[in-house]
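Run log, item B.
One chain of 182 residues. Sequence copied directly from the ordering sheet:
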Amino acid sequence: MKRWWPVGASLIAGVLVIGAVGILTNAGERSAMAQQGDVSELARRAIGGPGGAQSVTLLPGQLASNAPLDLPLPPGANVVGTIVRDLGNGIMTWDVIMDVSSAPADAGGFFDQNLPSRGWRPPSNFGDQGPPQGLFCQSDQGPWVGVLAVPVSDSSSDVRVHIESGDAGLCAGPPPPPQQQP
């Protein structure tokens, strides 16, 4: 069973953490810092996504205490760290990065088995399509969790868990199909 990141899981793919903390600055300072080649500004923008998050916090080697989920950890998991983003308008995200000493199907299966007992379920509004694999909701309004496990070797996986509150995401159902232009 392969794990694919659910459609609409914003801000998770392509994150390169260069090593800096997120800072709140005004637009003029950000522009000046960017022109001067400031590594902190580069990292804040890369981690914060297009337009930047209001704030970005890096928690090396630890889970965030303020996430809406007490995240269970697979046996042998090594937490690389958590990236916490405040996107404004009440939207918060937590991206947990961990190494797990098992194949992706087993690492992802751990969450399939353990999240429902903590009140998280696959989204219910997908009709006969079935919800995307690795996506869990607390309710149809969110918060939601997406799990991605990819192989690093035959016996280990890089696992990313994206938690988002303040936005229903795919918990509200699949996005509508694009409208055809006449």
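Observations after the first pass:
- The chain has three helices and six strands.
- The mean pLDDT is 77.
Flagged for discussion on Thursday.
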